[in-house]
Design goal:
alpha/beta
């Protein structure tokens, strides 16, 4: 089987996913999708800490736990479906890459709900953590990289100039067709980095 890697760029309630393999050292996009991480794609569930802020503490904690559980199950289902699809095309997923925000470590739940800035951070982290746990349950190794460090890390490991990497990833949009967004470009670069030996 040929090797492939998956890159994830997470937003509130969804993630951009790109599966990549290498041909002659260059990335080839095998699959891309927008994976929903909530069943009801509304503000209430996409921004669970914002929603919880308006609730009593115990109710808020139960609500957020429910969104976490649902999100982890949806992430796992999406990853397993992609594993199956790629295996049928003779590809084995050897690793995953998750892009991180540059946020600091979160305090306990009560303190999060008292700070609007922390609420924003917590909403993003909840969905990134869902991807982490889903990769673990799918037995896929996961590398996490801060998004701001990705280009420099890829340039160093791949021994390619940043301009070359940006051009190469942007050019892939011609073969896969629109939309070819920043989400997909960054997820592709992260997956490419994961495949580098």
């Amino acid at each position: 089987m040929r090797q492939a890697a998956i890159g994830f760029r997470v937003h509130s309630g969804w993630a951009a996913i790109v599966a990549v393999s290498l041909e002659k050292g260059a990335p080839v996009v095998l699959h891309r999708q927008k994976l929903l991480l909530v069943k009801i794609f509304s503000y209430t569930f996409r921004q669970p800490y914002h929603t919880a802020e308006k609730m009593a503490l115990e109710e808020a904690a139960d609500f957020v736990r429910g969104v976490e559980k649902e999100s982890q199950e949806l992430a796992l289902a999406g990853i397993r479906a992609l594993q199956k699809e790629l295996a049928s095309a003779d590809y084995n997923i050897c690793g995953c890459a998750l892009l991180l925000a540059s946020g600091r470590k979160l305090p306990e739940f009560e303190k999060i709900l008292t700070s609007h800035a922390l609420i924003h951070t917590a909403d993003g982290e909840l969905f990134r953590e869902s991807i982490r746990k889903a990769c673990s349950r799918a037995r896929l190794p996961l590398t996490a990289t801060k998004e701001r460090d990705l280009l420099a890390a890829a340039s160093k490991k791949l021994n390619k100039r940043p301009e070359y990497l940006n051009r190469s990833v942007a050019a892939l949009g011609k073969s896969v067709g629109p939309p070819w967004t920043q989400d997909e470009k960054l997820a592709t670069l992260a997956a490419w980095l994961t495949l580098a030996k």
